[in-house]
Structures are given as C-alpha cells and as structure tokens.
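Q: I have 209 residues here and want to know how they pack in 3D. Can you give me a structure?
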Amino acid sequence: IIMKEVKVSGQTPVSITYAGDKSDYFLPVRTSTMELMIVDNQILSNLYTSKKNGVYVKVENGANMVWQGYVTPNLYSQQLSQNYDSISVTCIDPLGLLKYYNISDIYKKNQTVKYKEFFGKVLSLITRDGSGVLYVESNVYYTGAGGPDEYDIMNLELQLNNFYDELDEDDDLNTAVTELLRPFCKYIIFDGVNFYIRDCVNIDVTKRY
C-alpha cells in the first residue's frame, strides 16, 4: 500500500457535498462526494484506477477525521502531465460504492437473511478494513403489536430472490438498500467515521450493531 500526503490549494481546496440534504429529503441512501484541488509537481498516475476501492482517501483536520472514501473509479480518461500544477479529483464515500456491487457479490440466490446480517455484509464489503460500525436509531421499529425487540427492523428478514428479475439478473446494492429502507422512511448515511440508519423525521438515541 502506497501512502502519500498531498497538498491542496485554491479558494475551495476541499468541498464535501451530501445527497438528500435539499434535493430529496427522503432519499434512503445519502452518499457524499468530495472534490479535492490537488497541487503536485509529480505525475499522480496512481489516481487513475478502474478498481471500485482502488485509491483510498482520507481528510484530517489535525487529529480529527473529517472524511474518508475512495477516488471515483473510471472517472478520468487522460493522463496527467508534468505541466499541470493542480488537478480536481472527485471522491466518493463508502456508500457511493454500493452501485458498483451486486447482491451476488455477497449472497447466493434463494437465501433468507435478517437486516442485521445483510447490512453487516454490505458494510464489510465497502469499508477499507472490511468492517464498519453501524448505529441505528432506537425509534426505528416496525409498527406492530409486539415489543421493540421483536419489531426492531434489524431483526426483520428479507428474501434475496426479491432482488433478482425473471432473467436471474440481480440488483446492485444501492438499489437493494434503497428498497429495504424506503418503506420505513429511513435512510443510511456515513459521517466520515461511522454509519447511521436514521429516521427521516425523528432523531433519537442510537443502537450499535
């Protein structure tokens, strides 16, 4: 693994944008993108990658982690030149990788799993070290006659066949996560360190998974 610290410059050297803040309040998967204005006197050819998580990026302010993610794969079609003083690089957070993976990357067809297990597999796939901490608001319950433990949505089961069409082609993970959270009016977001499933209206105490 090659680690490199780069310099940024410009009026807005680092710009982070979150989906769902204004355009779609009920967006189930709220990804973030970051634009970096990098200044370097070398050819940064390692930024050009076709891998989903080929180039890991993190932004720190002193000892605090501000944001982490990956350079968007297959974004650039030209090589850098020694004459370039700066270049704009677009990065995506781990949730932005969901559209590059399919259900078949983590599960076989004809399986039934709980939400808890499903999201655990998903986060292990898209995070850099293979693990991710997920917090779920404690008010996120399925409306029913039972108690909160029984109807916590993370204990609900899903049938993976629902994500395959008549030609046996499976959905990408962004579509799957969207369809799992939309009926409950919930969304998932990455704050730069942890993942959260939150209610689109209420904010309450969170439960760690």
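Q: Anything worth noting?
A: The CA atoms of residues 44 and 181 lie 39 Å apart. The longest strand covers residues 32-39.
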